[in-house]
Amino acid sequence: MAGFVWPLVLEHGDITLRPMRWSDRKQWQAVRAANKDWLGPWESTHPDGLVRSVRFIDMLLAARKQARAGHMLPLVIEYRGELVGQITLGNIVWGSLRQGYIGYWIASEYAGRGITTTAVAMLTDHALLDMGLHRVEINIRPENQASIRVVEKNGFQFEGLRPRYLHIDGDWRDHHCYVMTSENLLAGGITRLRPVDH
Questions:
Q1: Phi-psi category of 140—alpha, beta or left, where left has phi over 0 and alpha has psi -120 to 50?
Q2: Distance between CA atoms of 138 and 64, rounded to whole angstroms?
Q3: What CA–CA distance (Å, rounded) separates 135 from 59?
Q4: Which residue in 59, 75, 130, 159 has the most C-beta neighbors within 10 A?
């Protein structure tokens, strides 16, 4: 965990990735509520049909605990100072695996502008170049063409199908696995290829 830093702030042009704060609560809840239908098809659900409302403070404290332990980097995506989404490097495993998984969401009005692609590039570069991880995975439903474009633009390699991999939107859903390893990362990282304005 020599390269693990928390709290962490990453910046590239108009985009900032930073830890979530208690003061983000109202804006985060407003963005999530406004984008409920947009995010619903891609959101995880409970296999037993349980619907549980998680309080913002509980989510925040759990994420901070995981971050302090070196198992997660939970960050919000800011665009020109506005909270527009969230990106997480989670399930970080050290030892001989040195791997993490990236998950993200963005508000619909900011989709298709390269913001998510840049955020993924920033966090991937940090994971592989600064933290010393060997592998970053992103698992995406085959129907989610927007997310597939994000990983393809960043040079992630398609590794294969994971049948019925995660419980999403009320059922077990297939996912495509995309991977970036330290050997496949461009020299100097992929963020430098992303524009600084969107």
A1: beta
A2: 22
A3: 26
A4: 75
**Domain coverage including residue 102:** 10-192
Question: The domain spanning residue 40 has which CATH number?
Answer: 3.40.630.30
- DSSP structural state of residue 24: G
Sign of the Cα torsion 147, 134, 64, 170 reads: positive
Number of domains in the chain: 1
Please name every residue paired with 82 in a beta bridge, in sequence order, or none if there are none: 79
For 2-30, how does the pLDDT look when each residue is reduced to its tens digit (9 = 90+)?
689 999 999 999 999 999 999 999 999 99
Mapping DSSP to helix (H, G, I), strand (E, B) and coil, where does residue 8 land? coil
Residue 196 structure tokens: 């600084």
Q: What 3-state class would DSSP assign to 20?
A: coil
pTM of the model: 0.94
Residue 164 lies in a domain: yes
